[in-house]
């Protein structure tokens, strides 16, 4: 009880503090008290070849009650995945000595789970590489680091799109021969963007961050289409997709691809459907190209130039527009979409090439010429032909 009163009013006898401090210095030779009242400590701890500075604030020394653990950026990062264990160590310790022993055990565990940081069985060159990786990450900024593998072979970095406030992620792999070989990266940007071949983590991250800023305008331009129109493809639009396939009318759709350098300019457009239904759209596009205004949104321009009003997601269902294959009754078949339509203007039913081909070749009396099969539409029995699907 007397000890608790001492701690409550910070009245721990000086001889008790001196004895405890002497004991700590014996157990932890690299520990240094930062003030005479022994409420602040710095502890130099080597984890492999990495030197860490662990800082403790102990307002009730030698008791660990109310203590807090700080450190330099390397220390905090290595302990990032051990936050729960660190909190448990602080809460379950009774003295500063107990706390330091638990911190020491925790750092030993971190060292064992990070082979490249471990001195045992690891060359000095490999340890130097690990230290260099941590230095590179510090240059990029720890606030941009999302996750890092325990063996320091990969790291995930993030940046926020200022326009949408969406967080984007890039995963970077450090090759075994790093830094003699360039870094490799996996990302969700469009395929037309290629990461630079470099050994500099900062250069790779900066190029990727700049690309996110450039593509942001494309994503903004396409977002209105995703919100208001029936998007057939892709199923779940992501930052890697610069194209959209939109419902225009029953059994008619258009496929567009925006230009990253000018996302509000007239995109590349391809119509899909029976010729009788898409011919008027082609004619409108050819005649009204001069009506395209880059100051207007994509949807406004498309409707003005094509002379149509896109079906609304709020007023209709996807099934209303006959976009599924008339044989398998699904829209997507593996990587295939229903791209073959019956040419009869009263039918125009779409089919997957594979479905239609397999249907026709199994009909009695089917006629085949080269790679083309001729038969009757499964819906209206009008003549229809289908090429052999590519393997």
Please tell me how large the radius of gyration is: 33 Å
Strand content: 15-25%
Specify the overall morphology. elongated
The SS-based structural class is alpha+beta
Helix-strand string? HHEEEEHHHHEEEEHEEEEHHEEHEEE
* Average pLDDT score: 84
Beta strands, count: 17
Number of helices: 10
Spatial strand order of the main sheet:
1-2-3-4
Terminal-residue CA separation: 83 Å
Q: Please describe the biggest sheet, giving its number of strands, its sense, and whether it closes into a barrel.
A: 4 strands, antiparallel
Uncertain stretches: 1-13, 119-124
Portion of residues within helices:
25-40%
Explain what this protein looks like in three dimensions:
It is a single chain. The chain starts with a helix and ends with a strand. 34% of the residues lie in helices and 21% in strands. The relative contact order is 0.06. α4 runs antiparallel to α5. The model is unreliable at 1-13 and 119-124 (pLDDT under 50). The protein has 10 helices and 17 strands. The strands form 5 sheets. Strands 1-2-3-4 form a 4-stranded antiparallel beta sheet. Strands 5-6-7-8 form a 4-stranded antiparallel beta sheet, covered by helices on one side. Strands 9-10-11-12 form a 4-stranded antiparallel beta sheet, with helices on one face.
